[in-house]
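Sharing a chain and its predicted structure for anyone who wants a worked example. Both blocks are below, sequence first, tokens second.
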Amino acid sequence: MQKRGFTLMEVMVVVSIIALLMALVIPILGRTGDQAKIATCRQLIASLNSSTEAFAAAFGYYPKDYMASWSYVASESGTNPEQCRRKSTGLLLLALTHCHIDNPSNGATCPCKGAGPFFDSIKLGDNTLRIDGKDFTSSQVNASPYKDSFIAFTTFGWSGSSGKPAIQLVDPWLHPLVYDEKRAFVNYKNNIQTSGDYEKTDYCGVVYVPGADYTTDMAYKRPFLLYSLGPNGVDDTDGKSTTSEISHGDDIGNW
């Protein structure tokens, strides 16, 4: 007895059912993947927030978000504050990886009394990426507290003498995290600290409205902001949190 094959109509019905199931399942899988990344991002932000507070407790100040001698060239896309934000965690990472393992004799005279590193969970290609075409020169890396960053001495460092590759912190979507140190600027405005060019300018300049959002939005009550642009890769925090809309979109931060 000859077996009967599938008719064209039967094949088309089966293909249609498979396509329908894929259309239902793929978005669910995508959302599940994003939820896992969001959870991972929250853990990274929490860890970095604790590390930054530990640095401040050891040194008496928070890591800077801007280095005057580092190039923020006009040819790069975005405004100067946007360029600063994209590179801000390059400086934060140098500060948080400060330690005296390679120079133990410096620990006795360091304000941190030998403390550090404050963050060492570095996974290149996962939570850190090279900033393309950007290096820290030897003179920049040798500026305290960056000179004792283990990045400058380990395989993350460059063996040449002219500089060290700039490495930035990224979220699970590989977007650069934003670090905006505000305490020095706020202190300067309140006449608590009155010297130094760094203290006179809020370089990263994440915007808030004094007297409005500053008193109602927890993000701006902090001495520093540390946040991810979230799944959409758009900065929903800078300039978006207004008097009538205290919102950060899908940004994930330390607030």
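Comments welcome. The longest strand covers residues 128-137.
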